[in-house]
Design goal:
The protein is α/β, with parallel strands linked by helices and 744 residues long. Among the domains are: 64 residues, no CATH class; 76 residues, no CATH class; 147 residues, Type I PLP-dependent aspartate aminotransferase-like (Major domain) (Aspartate Aminotransferase, domain 2, 3-Layer(aba) Sandwich), CATH 3.40.640.10; 171 residues, Alpha-Beta Complex (Aspartate Aminotransferase, domain 1). A 7-stranded mixed β-sheet has the order 2-10-9-8-7-5-6, with helices on both faces. It has a 5-stranded mixed β-sheet with strand order 1-13-14-12-11. Strands 3-4 form a two-stranded antiparallel sheet. α21 links the parallel β7 and β8. The relative contact order is 0.12.
C-alpha cells in the first residue's frame, strides 16, 4: 500500500497526468470530471481519461487510493472563533503556519535568485521612517475598527451578517497571499478548480445532479454577491428567451434546412415569434444545437472548428444581447411583433430585482410584484392571474422568481407550486425561466441532505430540528431540483467572508449564450485541452478573488453540505429561532398590561419579525412612533460607543404600497390592537393629515431579528442565555420609549 503515499507531484514527474487527476478527484475535487482536472495540470501529454488508457490503469489506481474517509460531524465549537475568541490560540497557530508556509514558497521559487532587499536596506533611515509610518497608520486603523459592528456576538441579532467560519477565515487569508484572479485559469490554475468544485457542490446540494458527469452538465460559479448573481440570472434568462428567434434568422442566412421545434415539431421557418419565445428552456437550447449540428454536417469541406465559428458568429449577428433591444425588436413586425417581456417576483423581492432588469434592458417597470399572503409568501393564485393575463394578451414572460429566505422576513415561497405553474403554462403555450433567489436560505438546504446525499424525510428533519419545518417549507426545498437557476450566498449562511455569492444553472449550456472572448485573459489562439475551464468568459464580472472560492471550498470540506456539516450548524439556528418565537409569546404575557409584543408569524427559516405597541392604543401612527423610539435604543448610534448597546437589532417598514394591505390590516387588528383601517395609501395618508386626522399611516414599523449565531442559547450570565438577557433588557427600554412618545 506504499503507492498510497504517492503525491500529485510524483505522479506528474512520471508523466502520469491521469493518475494525478484521479488523485486530485479522489482527495479534493470529487464533483469534477477527470478531464476537467487534467486540463489545468502542468503541460504533459493530455490523455482522454478512462479505464485502460495508456497513461495509467484507472481501476488499479482507484483501488490503491480507496474512497476518501467520510468527515466526522462538525463541532460548532471548533468551527468558529467564538464570541469571546475562545479559539484564539488555535487560529493564531494556523495563521502563523499559513504565513510561514507562504514565505517558504517564495524563498524556494528559484532559490538561486539574489535578494532584492538587503539587510543594510532595512537599516536605512528612509526604510525605518516608512516602517514607522506604516505602523502608526495601522494602529490608527485598528483603533477605528473597534467602532465596527460586533457581528460575532450573540448580542447582535440584526441583519444577515454574522461571524465567519474558521476554515473560511483561514482559507481566505491563506489564498489571499497568493492573490489569484479567477477570471482565467492562467491567473488561477488552482482556485479555478476550487470555484468549479464549489459550483458543483452547491448544484449537488439542490439536486441538479449527483455524479461528476451529471454535474458537468450544470454551470455554477462564485459572484461578488446575491445582487450580481440575480442580475446574471436575468442576463441569461433574457438570452434564452429570445434565442429561438436568433436561431431562425441564422438558419435562414446559412441556408440550414430541416430544423423543427415545439410540441408539434413544427418547421422552424413557419413558427411565429410568439411561438418561438415560448419554447421551454431546454427546447430552445436543443434548437440551437440542431442548427449547429446541421450546419457542421452540411459543410464537410470545412474543419469542424471553422464551421462552429461560422455558425456561432452568425447567431451573434441576430441575438438580442449582441443587437440590443431596439435593433432586435425593430426587426419583428406584423404577426411577429412582440410586446415587451415582463418578469414576476413576490412583493418581498430583494431590490436587486428592480436594479437588475433595469441594467439588463428588461426594464424595472416590467417587473410585476406578486402580492403575498398572511405568511409573507408569494400568493400563487395571484401569480396565476398574472400568467393568465399574459397568455391572453400574448405578453412574453421572461422569468418568474421565487424567494427562499426573503430579506426581511426569512419567508420561503411555495417553490413546488411555482414548478407546477411553469409546467402547466408551458403546455398551454406560455413558457418562462424559473429562478429561485435563495441568497439567504439556500444553505439551509443542507438540513435536508443526509450524509449519503439523499433528501431526508420530513419526519426525520423535524425530529432533528425541534419540529421544523412546516409541510409547505419542506415541499419548497424539495422542489429546488426543478429550478432553472438558483442564487445562493456563501457569505450569508455559509459563514464565508465577503465577497462570495453564487449563481447556479441546471442546464450548463446556457453559459455559451453569454460567452465573450478576451485573448489576453482567456488564451486567444492557444491550443486548449478537453475540459479546460474559462470562468471569465461566461460571467458579468472580470477580475475576482480566488480567495473567495478557496474560503468557500475549505469551509465545505470541514462542514459538508449535509446533515452532519452545515445541517448541524444551521439546524442549531433553526432551533434557536423556534425557541425565540415560543419565548416571545410567553414573555409577551408577562408585560401585556403595559405593552403588546407580537411576532408576525412562525418563522420559515431563522429570521423573526415582531412588532410592539402600547397597551390600549389603537392608532397606527402612535404604534409606529413607539416602535421607532424603542428602535433608537436597540440600534447603532454613531455618536455612542457600540459597547453602550446591550443588544442590536434591525428594523424595517411594511408599506401599504409594497405589501398586501389586507394581510397587514389583519395583523394589526387581530394581534396589535390597532384598527386596520388606519393603514392607508400614501395618497390617503396625505389627505387625512391635511384634514387634521390622527391615527393613520402608510407603513408598519417592524423589528427584525436574524438568528445566525449558533451560540445564542449558550449560558451568557449564570443560567441565563442570550434570549433571557434580551427580554430582560427590553422592559426598561420599553418604558423609556413609552415616556418619549407620551411627552410629545
Amino acid at each position: 500500500m506504499n503507492d498510497l503515499q504517492l503525491t500529485r507531484r510524483q505522479f506528474l514527474q512520471t508523466g502520469s497526468v491521469g493518475a494525478a487527476a484521479l488523485l486530485l478527484q479522489n482527495r479534493l475535487f470529487p464533483n469534477l470530471t477527470l478531464n476537467e482536472i487534467a486540463a489545468v495540470l502542468p503541460t504533459l501529454p493530455q490523455p482522454t481519461l478512462g479505464s485502460g488508457t495508456a497513461d495509467f490503469d484507472i481501476d488499479r489506481v482507484s483501488a490503491l487510493l480507496g474512497a476518501p474517509a467520510a468527515p466526522a460531524p462538525v463541532d460548532l465549537r471548533a468551527f468558529f472563533l467564538g464570541p469571546k475568541a475562545e479559539n484564539a490560540d488555535l487560529v493564531e497557530q494556523l495563521l502563523l503556519r499559513v504565513y510561514r508556509d507562504y514565505v517558504f514558497w517564495r524563498r524556494n521559487f528559484h532559490p538561486e535568485d539574489e535578494a532584492a532587499i538587503e539587510p543594510e536596506d532595512q537599516r536605512s533611515l528612509t526604510y525605518e521612517n516608512c516602517v514607522s509610518r506604516f505602523q502608526r497608520e495601522l494602529f490608527i486603523l485598528l483603533g477605528e475598527l473597534k467602532s465596527d459592528i460586533p457581528f460575532y456576538s450573540p448580542r447582535y441579532i440584526g441583519h444577515m451578517t454574522a461571524d465567519v467560519s474558521l476554515p473560511a477565515l483561514v482559507g481566505y487569508i491563506a489564498t489571499m497571499l497568493y492573490n489569484p484572479n479567477n477570471v482565467s485559469w492562467e491567473a488561477s490554475p488552482v482556485t479555478t478548480l476550487l470555484e468549479l468544485e464549489v459550483g458543483r457542490e452547491l448544484s449537488k446540494l439542490f439536486g441538479f445532479g449527483i455524479t461528476p458527469d451529471e454535474l458537468a452538465n450544470t454551470w455554477g460559479h462564485i459572484t461578488s454577491g446575491g445582487t450580481l448573481a440575480n442580475v446574471e440570472s436575468i442576463w441569461v434568462a433574457k438570452a434564452v428567451k429570445f434565442l429561438p428567434i436568433a436561431v431562425r434568422a441564422a438558419a435562414a442566412d446559412l441556408n440550414v434546412k430541416g430544423l423543427s421545434a415545439g410540441q408539434a415539431k413544427k418547421e422552424l421557418a413557419r413558427l411565429t415569434a410568439w411561438e418561438l419565445v415560448n419554447l421551454p428552456l431546454a427546447q430552445a437550447l436543443d434548437l440551437k444545437e440542431q442548427l449547429v449540428v446541421n450546419y457542421v454536417k452540411g459543410h464537410p469541406e470545412l474543419p469542424t472548428d471553422e464551421a462552429l465559428v461560422q455558425v456561432n458568429e452568425r447567431l451573434k449577428q441576430h441575438d438580442i444581447l449582441s443587437l440590443g433591444d431596439h435593433a432586435f425588436f425593430s426587426r419583428l413586425n406584423g404577426e411577429d411583433a412582440l410586446q415587451p417581456g415582463i418578469m414576476c417576483a413576490p412583493q418581498t423581492m430583494h431590490y436587486s430585482w428592480v436594479k437588475g432588469p433595469g441594467a439588463i434592458g428588461v426594464g424595472s417597470r416590467q417587473v410585476v410584484p406578486i402580492p403575498i399572503g398572511a405568511k409573507y409568501r408569494m400568493d400563487t393564485s395571484r401569480l396565476r392571474q398574472e400568467l393568465e393575463r399574459s397568455l391572453k394578451e400574448r405578453r412574453p414572460v421572461i422569468a418568474v422568481v421565487g424567494v427562499v429566505g426573503t430579506t426581511e422576513e426569512g419567508a420561503v415561497d411555495p417553490m413546488h407550486e411555482l414548478v407546477a405553474l411553469r409546467d402547466e403554462f408551458a403546455k398551454r403555450g406560455l413558457s418562462f425561466s424559473l429562478h429561485c433567489d435563495a441568497a439567504y436560505g439556500g444553505y439551509i438546504g443542507a438540513c435536508f441532505r443526509s450524509a449519503t446525499g439523499n433528501f431526508r424525510s420530513r419526519d426525520e428533519v423535524q425530529r432533528a430540528y425541534a419540529g421544523w419545518p412546516s409541510e409547505e417549507v419542506y415541499r419548497s426545498y424539495a422542489a429546488l431540483k426543478e429550478m432553472d437557476s438558483i442564487t445562493v450566498d456563501p457569505h450569508k449562511l455559509g459563514f464565508v467572508p465577503y465577497p462570495a455569492g453564487a449563481i447556479l444553472f441546471r442546464d450548463g449550456r446556457v453559459k455559451e449564450l453569454v460567452a465573450q472572448e478576451a485573448a489576453y485573459a482567456l488564451g486567444g489562439r492557444t491550443a486548449r485541452q478537453p475540459g479546460e475551464i474559462y470562468i471569465g468568459k461566461y460571467i458579468l464580472e472580470g477580475s475576482k478573488p480566488g480567495a473567495a472560492s478557496a474560503a468557500t471550498f475549505l469551509s465545505h470540506r470541514v462542514a459538508p453540505l449535509d446533515e452532519n456539516g452545515y445541517g448541524a450548524v444551521l439546524g442549531q439556528t433553526l432551533r434557536i429561532a423556534g425557541s425565540f418565537h415560543e419565548r416571545i409569546l410567553k414573555f409577551a404575557r408577562t408585560i401585556r398590561d403595559e405593552f403588546i409584543f407580537e411576532p408576525l408569524t412562525l418563522p420559515d427559516t431563522n429570521i423573526l419579525n415582531y412588532a410592539f405597541n402600547l397597551a390600549g392604543n389603537d392608532q397606527l401612527d402612535v404604534m409606529n412612533r413607539f416602535g421607532l423610539a424603542l428602535y433608537q435604543e436597540l440600534s447603532i448610534d454613531p455618536a455612542s460607543p457600540i459597547q453602550n448597546r446591550r443588544f442590536i437589532v434591525s428594523h424595517t417598514e411594511f408599506s401599504y404600497e409594497t405589501y398586501n394591505p389586507e394581510a397587514l390590516r389583519t395583523f394589526l387588528s387581530e394581534k396589535m390592537g390597532v384598527k386596520g383601517s388606519y393603514l392607508v395609501s400614501a395618497t390617503e395618508l396625505s389627505r387625512q393629515q391635511t384634514a387634521g386626522q390622527k391615527g393613520y399611516d402608510n407603513v408598519i414599523v417592524v423589528f427584525r431579528t436574524t438568528l445566525m449565531n449558533p451560540f445564542t442559547l449558550e449560558h451568557a450570565q449564570g443560567e441565563q442565555d442570550y434570549i433571557d438577557l434580551f427580554f430582560e433588557a427590553l422592559v426598561p427600554l420599553l418604558r423609556k420609549a413609552r415616556s418619549a412618545v407620551q411627552t410629545k
